[in-house]
Structures are given as C-alpha cells and as structure tokens.
Design a protein that fits this description.
350 residues, five-stranded antiparallel beta sheet, alpha+beta, single chain
Length: 350
C-alpha cells in the first residue's frame, strides 16, 4: 500500500513539473531548451521592446550560432537571421550570448514588426539545431483618443486613450489640451461637467509618444447677447446690430420693440424707423437668450425739414394765386360785344 502511494506521489510530482515547464515556455529534451520570459508583447509603435530569453544546450555541444528569426526551422534549411534582414538592421540588437542568454531588443518598433519571433541556436555537433517552440507574439499598437460625437455644455464627458491591445508595460498616461499638459495620469480624462472652456484639441501620450490630436467640440446656447447701434443721431432710421457668443453660431435673430408683443423684424441687423427701446432674441437650436433693451431716438434731418418747408411755401403760393384769380373773375363787369357781326345786325333793324 505504501509502495503504491509512493509511486502515485512520484507520478503526480512528475506531471506537475512537466506542466510547469510547459507553461513557462521551456521545452527540455536531452539537455535542449528555450525559455521565453513572456509569450506575447503589446508595444507602442515607436517604443522599445526587450524580449528576455534563456536557453540550454547539451553539455557535449558547443553553440556556434544563436539568433532570432520569424520562420520555423525545417529539417533541410536554416531560417534567416533577423539581424540580416534590411528591414530590421540598425533597429534590432541581439543582447544574448552563446551560453544561456538569448535576449533580443527592438530599439524602435514599427507597425509591420507585428509578427511571431523564434529563438534558434546551432551547435558544432551533427543535428545540433534547436528552436524554441511557440515563439513570442509581438503586437504593435498606437494611441487613439476617443471622444463623444455630440457634447453639450453641462454634460458629463469622458475622453479615453485607447490601444488595440493591452500594453505589456504598465503605462503612465499624460494628457494635453492645445499643447498644454493636464493633471490626469490615467487612460481616461473626466470633464464633469464639461464647459465651453474645455473645447479644444486633445491628445494622450505614453513613454513620450503622443497620439494624434482630436477636437472636442462643446455646443452651448447663446450667451452675451447684446445690441449695438450706429453713431448717427439724426436721420430717417437708426441701424441696430445684434451679436452673441454661441456654438453653433446663431442663425435666427428676432427683434422686438418694448411695449409690443409681436416681432418688428428679423436678421442680424434692424433699421429702427421710430424712436423707442428695442431688443433682440438670439436662438441657435438649443435655447434662446434675450438682450438688454437699447433706446434710440429717430430725428428728421435738416435737409428733410427744409424740403418740407419749401413744399408748404410753394403750396401756399399756388393756392393764393388760384384764389386771387377766382376773386378777380367774379368782380369783373360784363363787356358789350362790339364785333362787326353784331354791328351789322343793329343797322339792318333801323
């Protein structure tokens, strides 16, 4: 009974050891083995990545060549060394040795570097070629700032710095608005509540690498609605102008005269023909706001008054002449007709 228990315990320990070797990336066979410290990496485009690795060879073998490659080993060929590839030359450095260290470093990661990488070594003995199974998956991502599509002043808004994969190195985030650094150090920036002063260009950064800028557009109803007038104090009208601060800009201005309930005009400007107090109402699709009233005085100009006086004077002259003519006609006595025809007629009667 004790013997069976001992055998069972040994088998359990053996299985457990094999399981631990498997999940750690070690493939041991007659002294051969490669261990990748991490089976996958998620790195920022433009950042540096270090793939740590250890390996072993049989004691009677001497390692002649150790390298990294993107291809699997086949029985009849040697895969290409990563350092010989022009796409990697100058950006990739082998930090290992010919004994146990097989660490590889990417100085700057490019998007097209996303691939699976294998460590391989060759010894001085026949058949002395070994490649670590499984390899290391390298994923490359960039930073993108996600903003809500429609933001209205007063909303609770969260901006998120996103990646396509979870970064292997725990990052510290930095946020910028219009080029100025903000206080947040996480992957989210909270603007609660958001105001029109928060509008601008935002980007996030990790390890000094910044995302593209995105614009945060904050919509708000009209503010600071005000009326201004021209400097003319005399004339047939006074031009009033309504202005405001709004996003989107105000497209609908309505004019009112104090004391009345109906609009007297519309548009950015209004010509007041009568003296009184006027105000405008601005509306941009969110809400409306009323301006303070402005009092204007419309006076007739000197030329207008002169023309009016001349018109009255001329009318008086014409009216007087017409009356004099009619009066004269009524007072004039009838005259005897002394034409030759009448004279002949009188003679014949004699």
């Amino acid at each position: 009974m004790k013997a069976e228990l001992l055998i069972s315990l040994r088998m359990s320990l053996t299985v457990s050891l094999l399981f631990l070797l498997f999940i750690s990336g070690v493939v041991a066979q007659d002294g051969w083995g490669v261990s990748y410290n991490s089976k996958s990496f998620c790195a920022l485009k433009g950042s540096a990545v270090t793939m740590e690795c250890t390996y072993t060879a049989p004691s009677n073998h001497s390692v002649q060549k150790a390298f990294w490659t993107k291809e699997l080993v086949t029985s009849g060929s040697e895969p290409p060394d990563l350092l010989d590839d022009p796409e990697y030359r100058g950006r990739v450095q082998y930090l290992g040795d010919e004994h146990s260290d097989c660490t590889l470093r990417f100085k700057t990661v490019r998007e097209k570097d996303q691939s699976k990488y294998y460590f391989t070594f060759i010894t001085d003995q026949p058949g002395g070629k070994y490649q670590g199974e499984g390899g290391v998956d390298l994923s490359v991502t960039d930073l993108q700032v996600e903003v809500p599509e429609r933001v209205i002043e007063g909303d609770k808004v969260t901006l998120t710095c996103k990646t396509t994969c979870r970064l292997t190195v725990r990052p510290t985030f930095t946020w910028y608005r219009n080029g100025h650094r903000l206080s947040s150090s996480t992957d989210q920036l909270h603007l609660q509540p958001v105001s029109r002063e928060d509008a601008g260009r935002y980007c996030c950064a990790v390890l000094g690498l910044r995302s593209p800028e995105v614009s945060l557009n904050v919509r708000y109803p009209p503010k600071n609605v005000r009326v201004s007038s021209n400097t003319t104090t005399e004339g047939s009208s006074v031009t009033l102008t309504c202005s405001s601060d709004a996003n989107p800009p105000v497209l609908n201005y309505t004019w009112f005269k104090e004391g009345g309930s109906s609009p007297v005009g519309s548009g950015h400007s209004y010509s007041a023909l009568q003296s009184g107090s006027y105000y405008c109402v601005a509306q941009n699709g969110h809400r409306s706001q009323k301006s303070a009233a402005v009092t204007v005085t419309v006076k007739e100009s000197g030329n207008t008054a002169l023309y009016a006086v001349l018109g009255v004077f001329i009318f008086g002259i014409v009216f007087g002449l017409a009356g004099w003519y009619l009066w004269k006609k009524r007072r004039e006595p009838c005259k005897q007709d002394t034409s030759p025809a009448n004279a002949y007629h009188l003679t014949s009667n004699e």
